[in-house]
Design goal:
The complex is a heterodimer.
Chain A lengths: L7 H58 L1 H17 L3 H68 L6 H74 L6 H54 L8 H26 L1
Chain B lengths: L1 E2 L1 H18 L8 H11 L1 H4 L6 E2 L8 H16 L8 H10 L1 H17 L8 E11 L2 E11 L5 E10 L6 E3 L5 E3 L1 H10 L4 H12 L2 E14 L18 E10 L6 E3 L15 E10 L1 H13 L6 E3 L8
Helix pairs in contact in B: 1-2, 2-4, 4-6, 5-6, 7-8
Classes of the chains: A mainly alpha, B alpha+beta.
Chain lengths: 329, 314
């Protein structure tokens, strides 16, 4: 920003760029909401399926060990052998489904982190641009006042009329040029300020999503790994009736992990469903405001206005410096 | 047992080289799948994306570790390759957070590897017809599994089937498929003695079992892994991978055992079938010398292949 001379066209372009970046970020967050919705749907489906698996296992177990089953076993042995389901197979299937969702959630956490980092980068950029625009605005203001002073002193100097006229033209031109530049930098400052809030809000939204997701993934990974170890350890005995209850405890652990996921997704969706529309609306309003601010009436800048603007800019700069000093203490 | 990240790479590469050196045949899980699975969990491919690296008491990778690669494969196959992050995107992410950039790069590498290559299944059943006609024929059945103790198992069955065997469907073109029920049956009975397994399969399917083989890859012995009591401790001083097979079949003319851990054949064999047992080893350094000496003491030769700790390039 610092090397490029600031013109209205440049300001307009920058505004467009910032707006586009914010729209892209919003789009990305919207995509993430869609991903969450899908994850949520799959999880509900997985939980329903898990619940069915448990019921079926219980029914299978009762059928295999009940009194009637014992009496009729010799007549139905062959049919039962093929009809009976393997507990281990069911566990593998359920575990695989949970494991896939967990890997997906892990990848999603990384996506959230990347978006959060990009948004922080955007906030940093706006701060940097704000700092530069403020500095330039102050320089312009100082120059305006210097030109103003020079103009005021011109009448008291002993000069030839031609020289006085030449200098007056020069100072007037300088004053007008610096006033226009100052106004542009003032607009740039406003532009940065207007965009900072939505950018921060977007960043905070994604950060919150990331923090919650990362924390969920960490605990779910722990639970799923533990369940996986138990499933592997019990696999050799998985189909012995005595261990079915223990295996069902493993299913319970998976169930717990999946319920935690569902809870998270539900909360995340609610948060995003409420926060995102508000953010979109805010972003739109801010863009409209900056658009209006950008239509600076350059022609309307007269000497008096330029002087007042310059004094105001310097006052603001001084206020900002004092505020910074106080903050430092 | 959890391996530190620094040790998991050398461990995986050593196991991969050992599996490759033994070149398992059709009695075992497919070599290509085994090598791909190990390549996927190798930190050289996946970084710490699939961590923690856990192994079982048999020295083989744990089910949970291998399962993470399978889960990534499912995700990889669901996603469009064009949506993989590009180099510039990864560089950009790395400039913002080096660890995140590394994870993105590793995830992309794993997805590119797994999108078109198969991995070892938790359980999988495949069936093919051999000379099947109107009155029946021969069915070849493979059941692969990551066994609960960490070893990799294949049950290989040759069945003489009637024209409409139970649990199988033969279409008009002669292609066979197996019902889920058979997979469930084999999952329940994969570890029972072979004669009992033969009976179960014969009863359930109505087929005559002409051959029933059970091939294992593993255990993988190295310092820190407990060896069976009948094995000299020196065998655990280096790296040593077991590859074994037990078979009962009707075409074995001279029943014998080439398995030093089972020097005697089981007494019972299903009617019309005979036993064959075999065990081979891939070993390095100290373990290689120790296992060769141990086998020579039992009059067994040619069952050991040496291996380097790096697999050949495939």
């Amino acid at each position: 920003m610092s090397t490029e001379p600031l013109t209205q066209a440049v300001l307009h372009r920058r505004r467009q760029e910032v707006a586009e970046r914010h729209q892209r970020a919003l789009g990305k967050v919207n995509e993430m909401v869609a991903t969450q919705k899908r994850l949520g749907g799959e999880l509900s489906e997985g939980m329903a399926s898990l619940s069915r698996t448990r019921t079926e296992l219980e029914a299978t177990e009762q059928a295999a060990t009940g009194l009637l089953a014992t009496l009729t076993r010799p007549f139905t042995a062959r049919r039962t052998a093929l009809m009976r389901r393997s507990v281990a197979e069911e566990l593998f299937k359920r575990y695989e489904a949970t494991s896939v969702r967990l890997r997906e959630a892990t990848a999603f956490t990384d996506e959230l982190k990347l978006v959060a980092l990009e948004l922080q980068h955007e906030v940093d950029r706006l701060h940097r641009e704000l700092g530069e625009a403020t500095r330039h605005r102050r320089t312009c203001a100082e120059r305006v006042l210097r030109a103003e002073q020079a103009l005021a002193e011109l009448d008291h100097e002993e000069l030839t009329p031609e020289e006085r006229d030449r200098r007056r033209d020069r100072y007037t031109f300088d004053l007008r040029s610096e006033a226009v530049d100052g106004a542009l930098y003032e607009t740039a400052v406003e532009l940065c300020r207007h965009h900072l809030d939505p950018a921060r809000a977007l960043r905070d939204t994604v950060l919150k999503l990331h923090e919650e997701m990362a924390s969920y993934v960490l605990s779910a990974t722990h639970i799923v790994n533990a369940a996986g170890r138990r499933i592997q350890g019990l696999g050799m005995l998985a189909d012995a009736p005595l261990v079915v209850a223990e295996l069902q405890a493993s299913l319970g652990e998976l169930d717990e992990a999946m319920q935690a996921t569902a809870r998270y997704v539900e909360e995340g969706q609610r948060m995003v469903a409420e926060v995102l529309p508000e953010l979109s609306a805010r972003l739109r309003t801010e863009l409209e405001v900056t658009e209006q601010a950008l239509c600076v009436e350059l022609d309307g800048i007269d000497r008096e206005k330029a002087r007042l603007d310059a004094e105001r800019a310097l006052r603001r700069a001084a206020d900002a410096e004092i505020a910074d000093l106080l903050k430092g203490e | 047992m959890e391996l530190p990240l620094a040790r998991s790479g050398p461990y995986v590469r050593a196991l991969r080289a050992a599996v490759d050196a033994l070149a398992p045949d059709e009695d075992h899980v497919p070599l290509r799948r085994a090598l791909t699975h190990l390549e996927a969990i190798d930190p050289a491919t996946s970084g710490d994306l699939l961590a923690p690296a856990e192994i079982t008491a048999t020295g083989m990778p744990s089910y949970t570790w291998l399962e993470r690669a399978r889960a990534e494969q499912i995700l990889a196959r669901r996603t469009d390759p064009s949506r993989d992050p590009g180099d510039a995107e990864i560089r950009r992410a790395a400039s913002l957070d080096p660890a995140l950039g590394a994870r993105m790069r590793d995830r992309r590498a794993v997805h590119r590897l797994l999108r078109h290559q198969d991995l070892l299944p938790a359980t999988e059943l495949a069936v093919a017809t051999r000379a099947f006609g109107p009155t029946g024929g021969r069915l070849a059945v493979h059941y692969d599994r990551l066994a609960p103790d960490g070893r990799w198992l294949r049950l290989r069955l040759e069945l003489d089937a009637p024209s409409r065997p139970r649990s199988f469907t033969i279409d008009a073109a002669g292609r066979a498929s197996a019902d889920e029920s058979l997979r469930h049956l084999l999952t329940r009975h994969f570890a029972v003695p072979l004669p009992a397994l033969v009976r179960q399969v014969a009863d359930a399917t109505g087929c005559r079992v002409a051959r029933c083989g059970r091939g294992w890859i593993g255990p993988f012995w190295f310092p820190g892994i407990e060896l069976p009591p009948e094995v000299p401790p020196d065998l655990g001083a280096g790296l040593l991978l077991n590859l074994s097979v037990e078979v009962v079949a009707d075409d074995i003319e001279h029943p014998r055992t080439l398995d030093p851990l089972h020097p005697f054949l089981p007494a019972d064999a299903p009617e019309g079938l005979s036993w064959f047992l075999s065990r081979r080893f891939a070993a390095t350094g100290v373990a290689h010398r120790a296992v060769v000496g141990w086998l020579e003491g039992m009059g067994l030769q040619g069952l050991v292949v040496p291996f380097g700790t790096r697999p050949r390039n495939l």
